[in-house]
Design goal:
By secondary structure, the chain is an all-alpha fold. 69% of the residues lie in helices and 0% in strands. Helix 4 crosses helix 5, helix 8 crosses helix 13 and helix 9 crosses helix 12.
Length: 282
């Protein structure tokens, strides 16, 4: 184990740039019940890239809006502040990293898996009558630590990727051996660094070990753990050597979903991923 790795990783996380002010203001307004749709639209419009992506999302087939959405204000009205806030968070966070120089890491596959996990998490939360947008956010960001590793420690992550493939073991286990920490702990630190919701940080930290999470956050970690497994099982990342991690059976049992409910989750995940991926990445 590389004993200096966790310290180096923490230093690198602390050195990450703050999220763009325009994006932070828009995210905060979209989460606030006191903000009007007009105010949210005004804040989004201050960032041209954010405004363009917002309109693209609103007009995507994923949301099924029957008419063309031509203004940011209409997008906020039609999608709702919470839904749009989730999407803005996803877009902004993903744009903070450039993983292009990490051999063996495929950003397209990473993103498809993240979106698939998010869709599955939201579908599970819907079945359980829990907060769907919070579950979606956690699913989308659960592997953000791996994205940070690809961008800032490409050599060690590339080594871990090669070892995981050669040994046919989960990547997060090899990450700990090579780096001294896995992407779940790194991702949680990043979420905390950017002052996103504490529940998101906890779900990211424990998504591979949901049974170890505290009761207050364990339910969300269970959802993300199951969603992650579903996304891998459906092979939606498009990887030839897709590895399905062993599921925590306590997580599946703890969700208390019926076979019919799980079937709906699988069907919704498979049917919705491609359209949403196109909307968020292109």
């Amino acid at each position: 184990m590389n004993a200096s790795a966790p310290i180096e990783l923490l230093h690198r996380i602390d050195a990450l740039p703050a999220l763009p002010k325009a994006a932070i203001d828009a995210m905060a307004a979209l989460r606030s019940d006191d903000s009007s749709s007009e105010h949210c639209a005004e804040l989004i419009a201050r960032d041209q890239a954010l405004a363009a992506r917002t309109l693209k999302l609103a007009n995507s087939a994923f949301y099924g809006i029957p008419r063309r959405v031509g203004s940011i204000r209409d997008a906020v009205h039609l999608l709702g502040r919470r839904t749009l806030g989730t999407m803005v968070t996803a877009v902004v966070v993903s744009q903070q990293f450039d993983p292009g120089r990490c051999p063996g890491f495929r950003f397209d596959a990473f993103w498809r898996h993240a979106v698939a996990s998010a869709v599955a998490a939201r579908a599970i939360a819907h079945e359980l009558c829990l907060d769907e947008e919070l579950a979606f956010t956690c699913g989308l960001l659960h592997d953000v630590g791996r994205l940070a590793l690809a961008a800032h420690m490409p050599g060690p992550l590339s080594q871990a990727l090669a070892q995981a493939k050669a040994r046919d073991v989960p990547l997060h286990e090899v990450e700990t051996e090579v780096l001294g920490a896995d992407h779940a702990d790194i991702g949680a630190a990043i979420v905390e660094r950017w002052q996103l919701a504490p529940d998101v940080a906890a779900a990211v930290r424990w998504h591979h070990r949901p049974s170890a999470a505290e009761a207050a956050t364990g339910r969300l970690a269970l959802i993300v753990h199951a969603a992650d497994a579903i996304a891998h099982a459906l092979d939606l990342a498009g990887l030839e050597d897709e590895h399905v991690s062993e599921a925590d059976m306590a997580a599946w049992t703890g969700l208390e979903l019926s076979p019919a409910q799980f079937l709906r989750v699988f069907e919704q995940t498979e049917s919705q991923v491609q359209g949403l991926c196109r909307s968020l990445t292109s």
